[in-house]
Amino acid sequence: MRPDFKPEGPRQAMSWLHTWSGLILGWLLFAIFLTGTLSFFHQEITAWMKPELHRSVPPPDPAQQARIAVDYLQKRYPDAGSWTIQLPNERSNVTVVTVRGQDEDPRARRGGTRITLDSATGEPLASRDTRGGAFLFRFHFELYGLPRIWARWIVGVATLFMFVAIISGIITHKKIFADFFTFRPGKGQRSWMDAHNATAVLALPFHIMITFSGLLLLMFTIMPWGVNQVYQNRLQFLQDQARTVAPVSQDSGRGGARRAAGAPARLADLGAIVADAGRAWQGAPIGSISVIAPNTARAQVEVRALHGTSVAARFSYPILRYDGLTGARLPEHAAAPSPPAAVAVYNALITLHEGRGVDIALRWLLFLSGIVGSAMVASGLVLWCVKRLPQQQKRGAKSFGYRFVEAANAAAIAGLAIACAAFFYANRLLPADMAGRADYEIHAFFIAWLAALAYACVRPARQAWLGLLATAGAAYAVLPVLNPLTGGRALWDSIVLGQWAIASFDLACMAFAVLFAFIFCKLRRHGGIAARKDARGGMLAEEAA
Amino acid sequence: MTNALRTSAGTRPAAPAHTAAGGLALRYRLAVLYRFALALAGGYACASVTAMAIAAAFASHRASAAAGATLAAFLVHATAFIWVFMAHSAAKATAGMAAYGLAIWALFLYAGA
What we know:
The complex is a heterodimer. Chain A is of the alpha+beta class.
C-alpha cells in the first residue's frame, strides 16, 4: 500500500503485506517459534532439569528393564487395578510406572499415581519441583499469566499473520530456487536479504506445515464452526477421529473374561513377553507395557510400540496383547482402516507439529527446521531495520518507531535466548527443596527477559546486540559445566553411559554458545552497519527487476 | 513501502499523503487500518461461513466434513488477507469480500436446508 494511493503491481503489494504482517507480531512469532522448537525436546529438557534422575542408567535389555519394574510393582502395589510401565528409551533414562485403582480406566491417558524409578535398581527416585520443558511447551501456545482463551486467540492471530507472511513472501519471490542458492556474504542488506530467503526457502515445507497445523491445533478456540455444524461438542469429534483410526475393542480375547473374575493367580513373566514383542517388531523399540488386573485370573498384558504406525493416523501405535497368566500372544485385532483423506491430512499435519510418536531422526529434523524457521523470523526482523537505516541516517535522528523496532529486535531475539538460559540457571541454583521453586524458575525467565529489554532500550542498537549476544554465548557455554557441579551427570559420563537424553541437552547448549559467539564476532568485526554507504536500494527495486 | 518511507525523508516533493512534519497522513493510516480490519474480521466471517457450509454439505461423513471444513476455513482466511491487499482499491477489496461472503452464505443456507 502506497501513501500516495497509486496502484502497484501484485508483487509490490505482496511485498508490503509480507513486511508489515511479519513485523506487527514478529517478536511474538519469534518467541512462539523458538519455544515451540525447543518443545520438540521438552522431555529431554525436563530430564536435564531433574538432576536427581541422572543417576539412572538403564540396562540394555528391555526384558530386564521390565522385570526390574515389575519387581517393584509386585512388592508395593500387588493389588492395583492396573499398571502401566513406560520403559526407558532414546528420550528418557528412567522407568516411569503408573498405578491405577480397580475402578480406573487402565487405558486412560491421564490420572493414576506416577512413580519414577531408577531403571537399573528399581528404586523410586524423587526429584525437585520444576515445570521443566512443559513451561516452554505451554508458553508457545498459551503464553503465561493470561486467561487461556485470550492467550490462544493472541497466538492464533499471530499464527494467521505468519501464514499470511509466508504466502505473501512466496508470491513476492519470483526466483525462489535461485534465491536458495544465492548467498552474498559481507554485503550488508543484501546478505540479510539472502539469509532471510535461504532460511525461508530451505525449510519452506516445514514452515507451511508448522504454521497451518498451528492454526488447526487452535481450531476449537478460533475456528470451531465446522465442527459445531456437525457435532454436539468437540469430544464427539475427537472420539470419532479415534474411531476412524483405531477401533478399540473391549473384548479381552481368549485369555481373561472366561476365567473367574478376581480370583488370584500368578502373573506371567513380563520379561519373556517383552522379548517376544521385540522379536515380533524386529527390534523396534517398546514404549510401554500395560498390565490389566495383575495377579488375578483376568490378567492381560498390552505392549505398545514407542513409535506410531503412520503420521496419517493419530494416536495409533502397534499394540500386541498377551494372556496375563500363560504369557501367550493373543490374536491381533483387524488392522485399523486407513482414515479418509481429509482426516488423514488433518492427522498428518497435527502429528508432525506435535512430533508425537515420531522417531528420533525425524524429531531432530523437525527441531533443526524449527531453528531455521526461528532464524528466518529473526533475520526478517533485522532486515526491516537494516533496510531503513540509510533513510534514518539521512533524516539525522532515528525516529521513535525505528528505535522501538531496533530495541525490541535485540530484546526479543537475543533476550529470549538469555531468558531461557536464566530458566535453566534458576533450576540449578535455587535450593532443591525451596518452597514454590517451580514458580521462581519461571520468574527468573521473565526477569531476565525484561532486563534484556531494559538494556536494549538504554544502549545503542549495536552495543545492545553485542552485550546481549556475549551474555547469551557465555551463559550457554557455562551450562554444561554447571550441570555436574549441581548434581547432574557430566557430559563425558552421560555420553559414555549412553544417556543421550541428558547429553544432547549439554551438547545443544554448546552448539548454541558457538552460534552466539559466531554472531558476536561477525557483528563486532563488521564495524557497524552504520558505516556502510552502499547498503541502499530496496528489495522492491531489485526483486521486481 | 520502502518508497513510501523514503518519500517521507524528503526525496520527493511533498505529496498530499504526507503531513508537513514528514509523517504519514492520517488518511493513509486509516486506509491501512481499514484493510487490516477488513482482512481480519471480514476474512474471519468468510472463513467461518465456509466452514459451516462445507460441514453442512458433507454432514453425512461427519469426521471428514468437520476436518475438511476447518482445513478449508483457514485457507479461505489467508486467501482473504491476500485478496484485500492485492486489490487496487479498498472499495474493490470490500466488494470482492462481500460477494464471496454472500455466495458462500447462500450455499450454506442451501446445503443446511
